[in-house]
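Example 3.2
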Amino acid sequence: MTILVRKSGPADRPAILALLDGARGLDLSPEERVAQGFVQGSFDAGKLVPFETTSGVFLPEDDGEPAGVALTSPAESAGGGPPGRTVEVARAAGLTEGVFLYGPVTVAPAHRGQGVVRLLLAAVAEHLAGYRAGVLFVERANEKSLAVHTHLGMKHVGDFTHADREYAVFSFTPAQFRA
């Protein structure tokens, strides 16, 4: 298995949308969603364009087959909802300049537990080396994602509640993951 990570383009949108949709876990029981993790929200090709045209969408491939995906965007483009709240929490924690949002991120089921998230983070770190920090939010009910990001050494910088859901905000520096 040799996984290579690259920035995606318009031709990759169907595969990326399939990965993100599959990771929502809508066909899983609440217990299975907690154990396997899940991605929030829904995406379409139009929603991917701002990610692609700013900091990027990163696609790990195993012999040409998508092994996962990570979306990134400048903090200034966060808007409302959990992304906007994440930026507010990060700024309150002192992360005021050179910040990008990391996520959603998912790994294809056949590639879980094989270090794909770490490979994604290394690629993100190389491409976004000019940024000071990446920030992300994880719903507290998403125990798998909380465990992965804690294991990777990301720093918990705060919490918020949105639409009766509780979230944790993590940060990392690109230097943490540069090869």
